[in-house]
Amino acid sequence: MRSTGATSSPAALLRLELSLVQPVLRSAAARMWRSGPGLPARYRHYLHTMHQVIRASVPLMERAAGHCEALPHDPVAPPLARYLRAHAEEERGHDDWLLTDAAVCGAPPGELTAAVPPARVASLVGAQYYWIEHSHPVALLGYIAVLEGNAPAPGLAARLARETGLPPAAFETVRLHADLDDGHSADLDRLIGRLPLSPRQRSLIAVSALHTVTALAELFDRIATGPHTSGSTHD
């Protein structure tokens, strides 16, 4: 018999849908973090790539909130705008954490900020701009659900420091996100449960989330298998 309790809530249904595809993302992450002599270079590549992703987080949320505030008669828009404004403040400066970690790893000043973002990053992040502009800002909740629902494992930072030989201070972003993102995921689930979402809006969140899983797994696979020699393009 099908349960009609919490398992049928919009947030629970989204988590159920994601559970069917998240093994792909987890496998890609495991390949990226596998032990071996290439791990230090893969970690540096990870910092480059995730800086290009994370520096878009606050601008995305602010843009989506602005669009919500221009939809005063949409019952989803006001609570969504409040959540996005608050969450943008929580996420502000996280891209600077990655710059600090990269500097500890020996990255020259300006290396991360001057790099041309590759097409894979544009595919991951750019889809959100499209949906915000041409569909509904609620799409961004699918993106946030995946990024914060796949936080680094609690012991990952310590293992990476031990196996790479890099200073522990080079792994602050990994450590901090392992601590923070579980609480953020719970806040997001509560929001999705409160919003008066239409079937179309629920579908949009799911499409956004599934795209995010696919695109993020492709990024992790590129880090796991791509060139990591000094001076190579981080794509």
Question: How does this model look, in words?
Answer:
This protein has 235 residues and is mainly alpha-helical. It has a single domain, classed as Up-down Bundle (Heme Oxygenase, Chain A), CATH 1.20.910.10. Helices cover 70% and strands 0% of the residues. It has twelve helices and no strands. Helix 3 packs antiparallel against helix 12 and helix 4 packs parallel to helix 8. The longest helix is centred in the last third of the chain and has 27 residues. The N terminus and C terminus are likely disordered.
Strand content: under 5%
Oligomer: single chain
Mean pLDDT over all positions? 90
- The overall strand count is 0
The CATH architecture would be Up-down Bundle
Biggest β-sheet strands, sense, barrel: none
Structural class: mainly alpha
Secondary structure: helix percent: over 70%
Low-confidence stretches: 1-6, 229-234
Order of helices and strands: HHHHHHHHHHHH
The CATH class, by name, is Mainly Alpha
Domain module tally: 1
Query: Shape, please?
Result: globular
Counting H and I runs of at least 4 residues, what is the number of helices?
A: 12
The name of the CATH superfamily reads Heme oxygenase-like
Radius of gyration over all CA atoms, rounded: 18 Å
* First-last Cα distance: 48 Å
CATH topology: Heme Oxygenase, Chain A
